[in-house]
Design goal:
The complex is a heterodimer of chains A (about 80) and B (about 210). With about 80 residues, chain A is an all-alpha fold. Chain A has one domain. Helices cover about 80% and strands about 0% of the residues of chain A. Chain A has 4 helices and no strands. In chain A, helix 1 (about 5-15) crosses helix 3 and helix 2 packs across helix 3 (about 35-55). Chain B is mainly α and about 210 residues long. Chain B folds into 2 domains: about 5-95, RNA polymerase sigma factor, region 2, helix turn helix motif (Rna Polymerase Sigma Factor, Chain: A, Orthogonal Bundle); about 105-205, Orthogonal Bundle (Arc Repressor Mutant, subunit A). In chain B, about 65% of the residues lie in helices and about 0% in strands. Chain B has 9 helices and no strands. In chain B, helix 3 packs across helix 4 (about 75-95), helix 6 packs antiparallel against helix 9 and helix 7 packs across helix 9 (about 175-205). The chains are: A mainly alpha (about 80), B mainly alpha (about 210). The complex binds zinc ion (ZN). Zinc ion binds near residues 4, 34 and 37 of chain A.
């Protein structure tokens, strides 16, 4: 049976779905007997989801958008003069 | 992303690069339209400051226009854009005083001699729903990400937040695929530990009425 340390090292590939069937089976076997690793698995997964959902909602604020537009306009005028 | 979608994106990028290299000024607007949000979001997540992110976005757009003739198409155009964004953000960060990084190893799980978990692991994954959209939770998450050491942070932002593939991230950062995977895994372990401190408090039975 694999130990918890090995189990946690395999988590990444487990979520990627890139483990060999045999390794996947021994991992899932470990989960059946080890509630701490299940808790670890769930919270590892939640961590990724929570962080993604919090950080990928960044929008450009309106004032920044306007500043960027002006910046581009200025730059284009300069380019045309060249 | 489907194969045809990828192929289409690649064609759009290539046409855009040709237009820019030919000095077509309309291509400027299209580049800005396509990339400014990505540039802004990545630099904002690295620096957590609106003014700095705006500066970096302007600088990156300008670099794209000025250096387009040095782009040789050895990597994807978008990888080039991400690389320029990272360089500009790091330059900006370096010019500011920074807190020293904490060691990531302290936050990795600990095991006993036989390789079994030593600490008590609480499963808070079911109780995050109600907390997810509170400002406090958002702040906790942002702070945790800010504390990530740079090497792990950049991989985490590109791969887990931006949603790029492992291969793409390895191209942008010039790292091997296994190196990307290992940094990402360490980054996630670090974040899990940081978030655990917060969520365990809320999901502990003591707190329930
Ligand atoms: Zn275990």
């Amino acid at each position: 049976m694999i130990c918890c340390k090995e189990c946690i090292d395999l988590l990444f590939d487990y979520f990627e779905g890139s483990l060999e069937q045999e390794t996947k089976n021994s991992l899932e076997e470990h989960f059946q007997d080890c509630p701490p690793c299940i808790a670890f698995l769930n919270t590892y997964k939640s961590t990724t989801t929570l962080c993604r959902e919090t950080l990928n909602q960044i929008e450009i604020p309106d004032e920044v958008r306007r500043a960027l537009q002006n910046f581009l306009k200025e730059h284009k005028i300069q380019q045309k003069k060249m | 992303m489907s194969f045809t979608q990828q192929k289409e994106d690649k064609e759009i990028e290539e046409a855009l690069v040709r237009d820019l290299q030919a000095g077509n000024l309309e291509a400027y607007d299209r580049i800005a339209e396509l990339y400014q949000k990505k540039i802004y979001a990545l630099s904002f997540n690295l620096m957590r400051n609106q003014m700095d992110a705006q500066d970096v976005t302007q600088e990156v757009l300008l670099t794209l226009f000025r250096k387009i003739n040095t782009f040789q198409g050895k990597s994807a155009f978008s990888s080039w854009v991400y690389r320029i964004t990272l360089n500009a953000s790091y330059m900006k960060l370096r010019s500011k005083k920074k807190e020293p990084n904490i060691s990531i190893d302290e936050l990795l799980p600990s095991f006993n001699g036989a390789g079994f978990q030593q600490e008590k692991i609480q499963d808070w994954s079911g109780s995050t729903e109600s907390l997810l959209f509170t400002n406090e939770t958002r702040e906790v998450i942002k702070k945790a990400v800010d504390l990530l050491p740079e090497k792990e942070k950049v991989v985490f932002l590109l791969r887990d937040v931006e949603g790029l593939s492992t291969e793409k991230v390895s191209e942008i950062l010039d790292l091997t695929v296994p190196a990307v995977k290992s940094r990402l895994h360490r980054g996630r372990l670090f974040l899990r530990k940081k978030l655990s401190g917060y969520f365990e408090e809320y999901s502990s039975p003591k707190g329930e009425i």
